[in-house]
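Morning run. Coffee first, then this:
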Amino acid sequence: MKRFTLGFIIGGIVCSALTGFAVEYAVTANPFPIKVDGVEKSIEGYNINDSTYFKLRDVADAVGGFTVGFTNNTITINTPQYTPPELSEPTSDDEPITIHEGEVSQRRFAREGDTVIKADGTAVVLKKGPHGILGEGQGVAPDLGLEVPTGGNRRVEAYKVFSGLTDFKDSTGKSVINQIYYVNKVTGEGHWGSEWMAMTSEPTTEGTFEYQLSEDKNWIWMGSEWIQMYVQDPTEAELRAVCDANGLN
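And here it is:
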């Protein structure tokens, strides 16, 4: 049986296939008839290395069930079941807001007095901790989901902030531009890098067992040194090992 592969082929790829690596791959027009639910369809295809490729949009038009688009330099494939998330209204006043942790939203940065709704439905009213850091010790990541316009990397899922936002400072008063927002997966707490540095420091005594967490659960003993737990991105298995080693649920 022939293998049919759904692919996205553009003219430049086809041309390079015919020239740059013609020795390895021979590109020919698809010689086989195509039927969708028993009805013959005319879809332009290409046979490359014994596999058949079609333009994604042509398949969408012939088969149905999904749409293809190109937005913000991204190829989008949407099915009828997909509903784009609703964006909350931009907020620019000083009234407290409710933040659903990690939601896709267009809102300002979190402030003291705002309410964070965690994934399990728990509501947490934000306050500043002993080091003046918003949300310190509260086990929430209030700005998870926001992205400042830096183009920098994030260790968390990031979304664009509303265009009226101009205050890009964290709880310490430092600019968050080019900073990373880290989330401690053990505690669920999230802060900007400079906030983490202001509120936690490396333990002064050595650990006694592998995966041992510091008292504040922000450092982990690995091998022969303490490493910031909040900058780690553990797999589920690694996270389970850490929790098991420290008697956590």
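The chain has three domains: 3-78, 85-196, 200-249. Good start to the day.
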